[in-house]
User: Fold these one by one.
Assistant:
Number 1:
Amino acid sequence: MKTFFKGLLVLMFLGLLAFSQAPVETANYKCLIQLTNYEGEGAYVVVSILDAQGKYIETLYVQGDDSEWYRDIEEWWKNLYGIRRPDIDAIVGETVTGGQRKMAVLRIPVNKIDSGYKIRFESAVEDQEYYADDVEFDLTAENLKTKTEGKGFIRYVRMLPQQ
Amino acid sequence: MTLSIWRYCHLTLALVSGLFLVLASLTGIILAFEPMQSALKPYQPEQLSKISLAETIGALRQEYDEVLTLKVDANDFVVANVVNKTGQGEYIYVHPRTGKRLGAPKSQHPIFQFTTNLHRSLFLKGIGRFFVGLVSFLLCLIAITGLILIIKRQGGLTKLFSKVQKDYFELRYHVIFGRWFLVPISIVAATGVYLSAEKFSLLPSSKIVHKPVEPDTEVDLSVLPQDLVLFKNITLDKVRSVTFPFSEFPEDYFELALRDKELFVHQYNGEILSEQYYPFTFLASQLSLKLHTGQGTMLWSIVLLLVSVALLFFIYSGFVMWRKRLRNSKMVVAQTDKDECTHIILVGSETGSTYAFAHALKKGLTQAGIAAFVSQINDYTTYAKAEQLIFLTATYGEGEAPSNARHIKTLLQSHTQKVPVQYSVVGFGSLTYQGYCQFAIDLERLLACIPNMEGSLPLYKINNQSFGAFMDWAKLWARATNTPMQIPPLEKKVKKAKTQPFKVLEKTGLNVDDTYMLHLKPKKKVKFQSGDLWEFVPEEGDRPRWYSVAKYQDKLVLSIKKHELGAVSQFLNRVDAGEYVQGGIKRNVDFHFPKSAPALVCIANGTGIAPFLGMIDENTKKIPIDLYWGGRTMESFSIYKAYIDNAIETKKMSTMNIALSQENNTKEYVQQLLQRDREQLAQKLENASVFMICGSIAMQRGVLEALEEITTDLLEKPLSEFEHREQLKMDCY
């Protein structure tokens, strides 16, 4: 009986916590990921927000749903996904292969823009290289309207606020 | 020589890849359900070939804030990546005409995800994929060697689908299913190899590379994409995917992936900025994926499911065959010294089934106090005390030696027996094959030329491993060599028929031949037909006896000969009308009245006439039936006379031909009657008439010889050809 009450209390507390967290305002950004003409399987791409110290804050988008390969996206796995499994809304099943492009809509929290945060695109291909900072730039309103060249499997990333 | 290489390859490959194949088949069975399940989803409300791309684009743009991509998946469902009116990004199935949301794609069910991984890479990522690809490749080789073996076995490519020789279940169905599944298995294996090879970049690139494009920027920006003529002319079934322009600037363009090519299209004037056709490797890869996974087609998924199940069966049956062959050759090892034995049994067998006969014979000889030695023909050597050599040999394919009898010719020359010996050759084969017992024939010819050797009995051919025929040979051989020997009945597990009471309606007295007729009626309704067997088990645990039945005016009619020592025939002789006896019906579909025969020739001796009495009664279409019957005296025929007279009167049969062996001074047998009517019978064979033979094994042998002579003399064709066309039906004991 005692444990039951305890459980109930914990549940109520958790419920309170859920309500007290105000929904974070987000803005939609269209994002185009153009891959280079590499040979091989489709690329896994993970888009995350990092703070100024390079600490993972949030994952916005994961391309590729075969979790067997997530371990290959080392930094992200070591610092985020491997430790706690956050619920990520935007996991897209299909990967795209060399030369192809992928469009997505990223929901970026407004309070993270122009506040010293960074956005990072990591990429990896089965049995090939892994690029921790294939594309990385400061999360500023200005940068979110431009095209950024990549260093690895990503040729460039184009961002555009969605009307 | 070549044969054993193929067999060896087939076996080795199977043993090497067996475990992986079991895993692949089991997972394959599960995975086959995935495409079936998704094909059943209701996301394809209309035929895509009737909807233009422009219409769908228009509807989507109307329905949503923003459209990023559109895809037509393997099931012909349209999936779009959109931003809806509330600003939420969504990946959903849409109605191709209205753009309305139909549902969301579910991610692969964990079971399928798990199974796919296991099937594709055994959870070992790259290494696993390599292994699976390799096993797939081995499966291709297994299929090829299997095809070669079947061709050899059936005696040529053209006979691939001809009747398969009767043998034990696993072997028979390994062959039967083998030829049906050869093609689908090859497809699954080859596509598996292709998909793996692709993963390891072993194939030329399947990618399209577009050159950078410079879209015209001086255009009318008010044109909507749904108004572009190009899009109006493309129907949705031609589309793989569409990537919408990233922004509204004219520099951004549509990317269209169609069935055969990719296009970059100007978003305002519809100009084709770049056009690249898919290379062959891309299309091959898509096709491989489709064929290997069954995506999008229910029917093919079912085929894939069957393939997976069949593979398991092949592994099982192949394993049984391998063990059997191994055991059969091992049994030979543990026995007395070859130089101590007077009777040497030499076996030539491809599958090992002939060994059963050899061991039965050995048992019989041992019981008679004779030292017998069993060995394979290839181990032929000198035998110090040998008196009798008995060759039991099958034939492989079209007259070739079985693999363990291949060296006999050289062995006979290099090993001369010190003492004179007698030999007898028993050929095992199937009448469906052109080279029926051909190797046994060749072997006998070979033996006839060897000094110090003398034949005890001419070659005896046995069709379809008939044990009855083997007993008959043993009797003849025992008589010819003065050996007091009897072969014990074959210990074979026979499925017992379901028994039920049969009421005795009538029983005649014994005629001069101690033969009587028994009319029975099943208490409960049971399906039977003339030619089926009535099974009777005299006592619990006893060997069942079978009698060929006639269905005569809905009664079950048997003709039974009372044997001096036959407990069963005596027991049945004592029953009276009104009593009940327990019995069962054993279906014998190979000996039923043929459905579409222009005419029938029935040949019987003694009580073998029984099923024909019924068949003639069933002849409602009144096709010509000629009956040939061999008996002892005219008096022997009297108990059948009423049936025959009635049939001739009602025109249900044409002629009755009787050969009597004891009536006159001239002994006449049924085969002599056949020779008398040879022209007429040859014509009947040509006209697709069916010949049915029922009676003793000895009569069957005589009849088959006569028929063979008739076909070779008059038609210049072997009898096997007619057997092949199922014009020959036999039920002899």
Number 2:
Amino acid sequence: MNKLGFARKEKVQQFMAVTGASEKVAIQTMKTHDWHLEGALEAFYNEGNAKVVQEKNRWELLFNKYKDPKADMIMADGISNLCNDLQVEPQDIVMLVLSWHFQAETICEFSKQEFVGGVQSLEIDSLEKFKKKIPFLRSELKDEDTFREIYNFAFDWAKEKGQKSLALETAIGLWQLFFAEMQWPLVEHWCQFLEDRNMKVISRDVWLQLLEFAKTVDSTLSNYDAEGAWPCLLDEFVEYLIEKGHCAKKSDE
Amino acid sequence: MNQRTTIDLDQGWQFMQRGITKLKNILEGLPEPQFSSEDYMMLYTTIYNMCTQKPPHDYSQQLYDKYRESFEEYITATVLPSLREKHDEFMLRELVKRWSNHKVMVRWLSRFFHYLDRYFIARRSLPGLNEVGLTCFRDLVYQELNGKVRDAVISLIDQEREGEQIDRALLKNVLDIFVEIGMGQMDYYENDFEAAMLKDTAAYYSRKASNWILEDSCPDYMLKAEECLKREKDRVSHYLHSSSETKLLEKVQHELLSVYATQLLEKEHSGCHALLRDDKVEDLSRMYRLFSKIPRGLDPVASIFKQHVTAEGTALVKQAEDAASNKKAEKRDVVGLQEQFQVFVRKVIELHDKYLAYVNNCFQNHTLFHKALKEAFEVFCNKGVAGSSSAELLATFCDNILKKGGSEKLSDEAIEETLEKVVKLLAYISDKDLFAEFYRKKLARRLLFDKSANDEHERSILTKLKQQCGGQFTSKMEGMVTDLTLARENQASFEEYLSNNPAANPGIDLTVTVLTTGFWPSYKSFDLNLPAEMVRCVEVFKEFYQTKTKHRKLTWIYSLGTCNINGKFEPKTIELVVTTYQASALLLFNASDRLSYQEIMTQLNLSDDDVVRLLHSLSCAKYKILIKEPSTKMISPTDVFEFNSKFTDKMRRIKIPLPPVDEKKKVIEDVDKDRRYAIDASIVRIMKSRKVLGYQQLVMECVEQLGRMFKPDVKAIKKRIEDLITRDYLERDKDNPNLFKYLA
């Protein structure tokens, strides 16, 4: 598509918007009709391009299957049904990867746009295909950069809208998911520490920096720098670990 | 004119020889008449003639050679033998004599042969006659003897060092030979004499020092060292060349001081510590004089000084701490405790006076010692005593001096002087903001309750504080003092207003002090339900104030008010001086005889704390204006109170104090809050100009910016950075979490 000029690109996009056909189909049809949008559209429908329409309908069908009866979106019940059909637990981290792909704004919710756009870009048009995608989604967590993106995405996705921070309970749930995946040995201590401290919320800074901390500081804290710019909460966590005897105090070099 | 007859060499030289022999005889002291000018003319003319004859009879070259040979012959035949047979001092004397003779000989001979100098030598660029003469002595005499001479001189110097009398003039003359022989260059003096002399000096003093350091006390050692240095300096002025002074003294200083510096300064019973402990001012001055001369010599002295002052100061803190805990153990003796603190600050001031004098006198105002003093005071001045920070102690100290009937009875000059010193001490305190807050609280009490002894002192200390800490530090305090002056004027015009409007007069004398909110400490302004009489007063004043200014809101702070009311007790009427709170409570009993705690609280609309406090002052303290049921020492919410109509006292007027709430906690909280703002402001200021900055750098600059007011905790700064991130003033760099960016 990049080879096309701006005007043509726009036409292709218009074509796709109207018909819901794939890019490939759109370009081909436009080409055969000398880049006349109207002509191409007419031909497309006249030829009864049933397959494409069907495709589009299938995405919608998929959406409608889980749609909340009262709203034009998928809510908690719909998601739990979807999970059932996909044979994964709702708490499975793979659902988080999916939400990231769908660019979902809110936890436990998919708007129609998010869902339809999402399945389209993942090239899913049936439950079968959906099921087959699951191992791929899971494998994406192995990539370090994707993992970080999903981790960063999770903060805004999971926090109460209008709040600046993430509720501790939610944060702990997410950490347990993520760090089970990444295998950070201190995750249980960390969650315990936050509960002992009676923390209510987690700031974005702490959320983002914790991943750095988990990645760079080893579990014996031998390379932890007290003079560094870690958020106070992380400094205090280190003190907590030393106090509790989980880690030896770094000897002064 | 007849033609001049040619003089041949032998003939001419024979004549010259006679003249030379005569000269030698004179030098040897043999009886011989002086040269007459005729003799001299004849000798000169002979040379002149022999040099001006036509070749082959021009004998210039031969005469030049003979000139040199004459010296060589004389030196070999006479001078050297006479020197060789003498030794030591006698040899030196002979040498001096021979050198001086030699110079005479050069002078005369070069006059006889002068014509050579004018043409022959000049034309051929040969060494001049004078130089040839001196070179002969150098090559034949000096080269042979300089080693012997040097040893003899050094041995004489050593004898003098040991206290013997020596012939200084002789040494002076001998050493002049070393200089003169160089003919303008110092090489002979430096290489043949000075180097060996310095080496010997070093060895000599190294030997001495190794004994003295064991046998002598530090002051004795220093006395000796100073004396030695003085004598060596004398030595230079008497007979050594002046260029030797620095080198010589450096050697001596090195051997006597540098080598043993640590051992000397740390001598257990007489070292620097002991001298400071025993106030040996003179020895310390000497120590400064000596050690200021050696490179980095003062560093250890300053460091010991700092240790000493720190220890003394820490001892004072400990002493005050002990005294305070004793007082506390005895009973809750608040006054006694205050006295202890007062004594403590006094002692710290004395300590400062004492050691500042040391710095100025013994240590000649050297910056190193100023720094040591500062660092020492910073250590213990920031410790605080018995839970009170030194910022608070200083503020209280000032209060005691400035308030009426304070514990210090001082003359005006003494007050000024003391204030000056307190302000100086403040420089060592890192929590200046805490001092300012305590000071403001106390100043407010002095001003509002008319306790300030002297307006001039109040202003004078503010000037001093302003000088030291800057205008921002004192602006609020100055505002307070000014407010009070304005309030007095305001009161006068209020009284005038009342006399012009008799209808408005509430029938009660009312004084109102109008203050500017920002300048003063914040006070709680609860909505106390005032008695109707007082409500009327407030209304009248509001009306008056409206006539003067519009758009100004008056907030009444009843907690600071005082009232004089008449208590009509059965025995007699007594004037009671009470706070507005107390008065309001008492006036409730005009309407009812008995009131329960709960009734009083609801009618006054005050908090539990306040009600407990004021009821305690009226029923459980010295004057029992109210009778409490049950009669215990504590106020409880189930108590019932009744007016004590039988109450009486021998005085006609009594003051019933309401103990002030302990404000320490609030002050500290306030300061803490202000610090958060200050840190925020500082971080934003720095980041605004730097845009991107590393964490360490940011913390450093922040500490530096705020250092004038307080020493911010690194953790506190970090917390504020995080808060600013949350509030979207800053963000972390995506790739480097140690880097912060400013979000405009």
